[in-house]
Design brief:
This protein has two helices and two strands; from the N terminus they run αββα. It has 54 residues and is α+β, with helices and mostly antiparallel strands.
Length: 54
């Protein structure tokens, strides 16, 4: 029974597997980095267009 509690995280009455929490954290970080890179490239593209107009 102790092993069950070591491999799960409790949120009130909800018990979530540690693997599920790790998966969600990795997925969240991946999406955060992807959106950040996309935004960075968008801003760089806008700045490059402004330089060409000058």
């Amino acid at each position: 029974m102790d092993q069950f509690y070591l491999s799960s995280i409790q949120f009130g009455e909800l018990e979530v597997s540690t693997y599920t929490v790790v998966f969600l954290l990795v997925l969240t970080l991946f999406i955060f980095i992807a959106v950040g890179l996309s935004s960075l490239k968008l801003v760089q593209s806008a700045v490059d267009k402004n330089k060409e107009e000058d």
